[in-house]
Amino acid sequence: MAAARRRVSVGLGLTGAACALMGVFLLLVGPLIIKEQVIKNVRIDPSSISFSMWKDIPVPFYMSVHFFEVLNPKEVLQGAKPMLNQRGPYVYREFRYKTNITFHDNDTVSFLEYRKLFFQPDLSNGSEDEYIVVPNILMMGAAVMMENLPNFVKLLLSGALAGLKQEAFMNRTVGEIMWGYEDPLIDTINILVPGLIPFKGKFGLFIELNNSNSGLFTVNTGMKNISRVHMVDSWNGLKEVNYWRSSECNMINGTAGEMWPPFMSPTSLQFYSPDACRSMTLVYERSGKFKGVPTYRFVAPKTLFANGTDYPPNEGFCPCMQSGIQNVSTCRLNAPMFISHPHFYNADPALVNAVEGLHPSKDQHALFLDVHPMTGIPMNCSIKLQLNLYIKQVSGIIQTGKIKPVVLPLLWFAESGSIEGSVLKQFYTNLVLIPSVLDYLQYIFLGLSVPLIISAAVLMAMSQRTAAEKSPRRPATQSKPPPSSETTPLLHNADTLSQDDAEA
Asked: What percent of the chain clears pLDDT 70, i.e. is strictly above it?
């Protein structure tokens, strides 16, 4: 029995020691293995898991467009406050893919990314054939742009506008406003003021978005330095743009807005947006999970579109008006265009109160990015922006009537997408499930080693005690007296008695 216990205790002890060693091994080496796998699979390399995702984005992206219809155009011409009604959404399926992918010796890769948009009637609240009353963007924009020109030029334009039957507001279809319409005003303006609007043919707010690229990006591959992966090295060959009045505002910071370096900290992230003509910084809001995948949520700070008075670093984006809008005329053909959050969310209340029909809400109008911090890959996102046109009465151009100066919302759009299906399953298995299993295993092994080693020690002690109890005890040995020539008294007395008996 004792021998069996000893054998069991030795087995338990060896097993416990093996579990302890395995647990310590996973504790020390496991994170290194996970980190190495992440680095291997997120860098821009044809052998990485994320390369195909980066090259041809498999995530179903949708662009939802909401128009602001002007309900009282005649009254606005007389100086009344514009009354707006939101129409839509008009939803488009967006496909993104990269071409001209060229790897360079300095750990960078260049590419052109194209977008194709397809209208989705089933997801839309209306069709592209619906008519909407909006400002005559070309005419009103040109009027403000010509405000400081000599009066005779403005009178010439006003006469030409009358001959072309141009008015301050127009009634056109969604498709025309989005993808372009023929307008003789374009040729007239090019004749009267050459270079004022450097384009010909159709005019549409999104005419350059469909089937076109966002410029030549050159980004870091991360092959030599993973902390630089996806970071923009240049855009259209530029290290910085020249749209703004300060070097800080002209800087091209962050990534191209698709992925970020792995092992993110809950602070902020940056990306360069060609649509906004600037770099943008989003700040950490909270941690969460998207379909089981841990995420960091990043949102736009209130300072994103603040003016230079409220936030001095934005002074370079001026001339500014109220906080909450950004003047993008310098990168939009000098047209009086402004971008903002939808419904002037997070903007100066004066902008909201200047019109009727806006209802800013964080849930509906705030942009966000949910990013997996270990890999820097977005899981879920919704980027929202609003286009606005500054309109006003311009002396000499009678078509502008008595319009009071106002930043008038034209439309807002949301580009949204989330990882799903087989892509999500592969991502979850390789970059979430396996690392989690390794993480749990190290503690399981360490947890098992303790009771196993304790049990082995207890059994060993018990076996030793049992063996001690069953071993035979030896009797205590007594020392014998040294031999003597004299007999003992008893024998002496016996001898004496024997002699007496003989004499008798």
From this structure: 81
